[in-house]
Design goal:
heterodimer, A: about 325 residues, mainly alpha, Substrate Binding Domain Of Dnak, Chain:A, Domain 2, rod-shaped, B: about 80 residues, alpha+beta, five-stranded antiparallel sheet, 1 helix, globular
Chain lengths: ~325, ~80
């Protein structure tokens, strides 16, 4: 029996696989942060148990104070209680330090999860964008196979890989930064096991607590990493220079039904903005200055007319000339 | 490649033919051609703002250059499709 394959489903599955490939490091960092949170939570619980144990010991000593009236014993017990109280204060400080660390790491984890969503969307849209291009070229190759098309396809594949790798590299930097800020003293030797010997005197156990790496971290100011970097480059002012664009003869009247409008229509950049004003528009497309224009109407264009434009010998050289000029200006 | 050819009318009553539309780094850009002045060709950013579509020119020459490369490829493919 022939197996029926849903092409859309297969494509979606393939894309998900591609996205997964670029999310491996995210998964790894998320696991590392989760493991650290679990580790610190266990450590905190251990310290809480020790604190309870000390409290119990203190109560027991106080009971002895009630029943044994011997002066030497009273002094000895009082000293022990005092020592226990000091130890409990130390444990309490360590618990506070652990709670602070836990909060920092949890915040860092939440932050990376949030930015992971944005990153995934970027990866997905990039793959989509290139897949569409590549599919179009593939379709063209089926109709007319030639070296140029194959080369174009290879170029698009290469560009896609390059773009995705750049995004992956950038994400990797963000994750490393998040890890470094969340766990500045992250080492594998971790924290001491306070339950290693249940027969050891409480004071000895507390000594272990006081040399725990947590003490080192307690005084360390940890900031939540901002993994989204503002990458906006300084904007360059650049006035569009249309002087070198050659006027063309092709008439596009078929696209304009209103003759009056045509009379009023002029170059968007050269007439409406006076020469004293910077002709360049702000790259920030949220700006509402006079250089932004609102689209008040959209009309679809039939395939025949599009075909007429793309097959005409008049417009396209001008378009390519403009694009080549823009490319050169950016180099 | 985005195949979404249309004619847009701006609030200054100028009409432009949208030759190509692309999405680049989370923003949308169009290559537009004034239907009454074939020398008026521009790469613009497209943004939806308060349910209104707004276009703005781009003054970053590097971005313009990158977009021009993409549009060039896109146009070349369109030519193949429509020729």
């Amino acid at each position: 029996m022939e197996e029926i394959i849903d092409i859309d489903e297969l494509a979606e599955k393939q894309q998900n696989e591609k996205i997964k490939e670029y999310l491996k490091e995210d998964e790894s960092v998320s696991k590392e942060l989760t493991d650290k949170i679990n580790e610190l939570t266990i450590e905190k619980n251990k310290l809480s148990d020790k604190s309870a144990e000390l409290k119990e010991k203190e109560d027991s000593l106080r009971d002895k104070l009630t029943h044994d009236a011997n002066t030497d014993d009273i002094r000895k017990i009082a000293d022990e209680i005092d020592e226990i109280k000091q130890d409990m204060i130390q444990i309490s400080e360590n618990i506070s330090g652990l709670e602070k660390d836990l909060k920092e790491i949890s915040n860092a984890k939440n932050r990376t999860e949030e930015t992971k969503v944005e990153y995934s969307k970027k990866i997905s849209s990039t793959i989509d964008e290139y897949d569409k291009k590549i599919s179009t070229i593939e379709a063209a190759i089926k109709v007319c196979d030639n070296e140029y098309l194959k080369k174009a396809q290879e170029e698009e594949l290469s560009k896609m890989k390059e773009t995705l790798d750049d995004m992956k590299e950038e994400r990797s930097r963000e994750l490393k930064e998040a890890l470094n800020v969340a766990m500045p003293n992250n080492t594998d030797d971790s924290y001491n096991d306070l339950d290693s010997n249940s027969d050891t005197k409480i004071n000895s156990l507390l000594d272990e607590v006081t040399v725990s790496p947590l003490d080192i971290n307690n005084d360390t100011e940890i900031e939540i990493p901002s993994v989204i970097e503002d990458k906006t480059e300084p904007e360059e002012t650049h006035a569009n220079d249309l002087d070198n664009i050659i006027p063309l003869d092709l008439n596009l009247d078929f696209m304009n039904s209103n003759e009056e409008e045509k009379e009023n229509d002029t170059n968007i950049l050269t007439e409406d903005i006076t020469p004293t004003v910077d002709l360049s528009l702000d790259l920030d497309i949220n700006n509402t200055d006079a250089s932004s224009y609102e689209v008040i109407n959209e009309d679809t264009v039939s395939d025949d007319k599009i075909s007429e434009i793309f097959s005409s010998s008049g417009i396209l050289p001008s378009v390519f000339e403009y694009l080549d000029k823009m490319i050169k200006e950016g180099v | 490649m985005s195949i979404n050819h249309k004619i847009i009318t701006l609030d200054n009553n100028k009409k432009y033919f949208v030759l190509e539309e692309i999405s680049y780094e989370d923003n949308n850009y169009s290559l537009i051609l004034n239907i009454d002045d074939e020398t008026d060709i521009n790469i613009v950013s497209i943004k939806e703002e308060n349910e209104k579509i707004k276009i703005s020119d781009i003054n970053d020459s590097k971005l313009n250059s990158e977009l021009s490369k993409l549009f060039k490829t896109s146009i070349e493919e369109s030519i193949k499709m429509y020729s």
